[in-house]
Amino acid sequence: NSRGAASLLKDSIPFADVSAAGLFEGHDLLRRGFTSVKNELLPSHPLELTEKNFQLNQDKTNFATLRNIQGIHAPLKLQMEFRAVKQVQRLPFLHSSNMAMDILRGNDECIGFEDILNDPSQSEVMGEPHLMMEHKLGLL
Fold first, then answer.
1. Is the pLDDT of residue 69 over 90?
2. Cα gap 52→75, rounded to integer Å
3. pTM over 0.70
């Protein structure tokens, strides 16, 4: 056989793709919700895509304006700061206010919907810390 053992290993199933539950793991209803083909293909409302991408579009507009006014260095510096702030995270079972991101975007002086109705004690994310860390690390 001229292909050798390396090609045989390449054609086999990698171990990372096989989870603890096996190849036939079901849909996790508690974490992902109900599945529907219609919801995957079309948005439920015409404004849903606009609302979903609002912050991204806002950032693009701000970066373009900043580039036109101050040059290319200003949006690049701001993007590097955004990436640095996104890398710093709390543990998945703890609530994070993302105050540094709000300051960079200029939202620290605004009162929004999530400031009033986003009480961390009523969060659905709260759960057992060990299970949530194992899920985040891919051990579960």
1. yes
2. 23
3. no
